[in-house]
Amino acid sequence: MVYTMEIYIDSGCRNLGTTRAIGSAAAILTNKGERSNKWTTDLRRGPRSPPPTIQRAELTSVILAIDIATIRFQELDTKPYLDVKIYSNSEYAIDCMTNRIHQCNRNGWMDDAGDEVENRDLMEKVLDLEDLLRDKGDVSYFLIPWEENQEATQFCNRALDDQSRELGPEKYEPVA
């Protein structure tokens, strides 16, 4: 038996380049064709965490989707063959997961200039999680038009709005 999960993802950032940079990743798991199960995770600047960027947010949304699929699989009474389909309107996320991440891994996480690739920490994490998920079945990534991902976009924007309210109306200073 095949158990199919469809997950729509999106991400966003605000105030990039300032000390008040925030980011969010969102994922929506469909339930029999209806998008009803929703999750978000925040990216915030911290003393030991890199500043939020749109690329980090996009990779975090993929991690969130794979985490959700893994957790849902563990909750099933049976252990069917899993078919996870992840949809995004982000060309970066889809290209990264279908091409770039595997190329970076083969190249020892070095770019063409011989420097370590950016966001290696998240790329390695997503590869590890993807490997665990592939032990249970397949995972595929699909680029969809922005119009088909509006629910995930709106959910992500609400999470960013919540973070902005928590920060309050303070001065936005550039990162030194």
UniProtKB/TrEMBL annotation:
InterPro entries documented for this protein: RNaseH-like_sf, RNaseH_domain, RNaseH_sf
UniProt-listed SUPFAM superfamilies: Ribonuclease H-like
Domain called RNase H type-1: residue spans: 1-165
Protein name: RNase H type-1 domain-containing protein
GO molecular function: nucleic acid binding; RNA-DNA hybrid ribonuclease activity
